[in-house]
Amino acid sequence: MVPELVEGHKAKPSPGAALFAQRRGGAKRTAFSSPLTSSGTALIKYLNQHLKMKGYMYILRCSNGDYYTGSTNDLQKRMEEHNNGIACNFTWKHLPVKLIYTEEFPTIEEAFHREKQIQKWSRKKKEALINGDIELLKSLSRNHTDVKKDSIQKLLPGL
Question: What is the pTM of this model?
Answer without folding.
Answer: 0.61
